[in-house]
Amino acid sequence: MTIKPACKADLKALCEIENEAFDKNSYALSCKNFLYHIGKNQLFISKIDDKIAGYILLLTRKKSSKARIYSIAVKKEFQQQGIGKKLLEESFAWTKKSGKKAVSLEVNAANFSAVKLYEKAGFVKIKILANYYPDGANAIRMEKLLTK
Asked: Which residues contact 58 (CB under 8 A, 6 or more apart)?
């Protein structure tokens, strides 16, 4: 498996993963959203045998001391193979290198497998966000402090 920054040639595969992972009517990123983020923010892909298996999108602000994981997804056929963990590790390394001290995210409170993955990666629950998603689902804000 390799992890690298996404490029325009990855757009179709990114959109396919997104549509498989998220409900289009709730909070999925569009192909136009991905195109915007390629080259502007940290959008990393994981590849296995020349197939894009997953991605992670980080957002940062110049004055903030942390990065935010905006979205992460792994194609169903590649789940349970440690790809999400590797993408998280890449985001931690990039965040440290950029001088940030923490990584935060919001996750659907009903997505127990994702919450478990984040807790194993060292995230702690900070706050419940009621009716966070367009469909009314609650989210959990989580954060991981990065050590030097």
From this structure: 41, 42, 43, 44, 67, 68, 69, 70, 91, 94, 95, 103
DSSP class per residue in 37-68: HTTTSEEEEEEETTEEEEEEEEEE-TT-SEEE
99 φ, ψ to 5°?
85, 5
- The Cα-based distances of 19 to 75, 76, 148 in angstroms read 10, 11, 37
pLDDT tens digits, 40-61: 778 999 999 889 999 999 998 8
Provide the token pair at 45: 């892909």
How many Å separate Cα 14 from the centre of its chain? 12
Q: What is the pTM of this model?
A: 0.89
Third-level CATH fold of 2-145 = Aminopeptidase (3.40.630)
pLDDT tens profile 115-133: 999 999 999 999 999 999 8
What pLDDT is recorded for position 101?
94
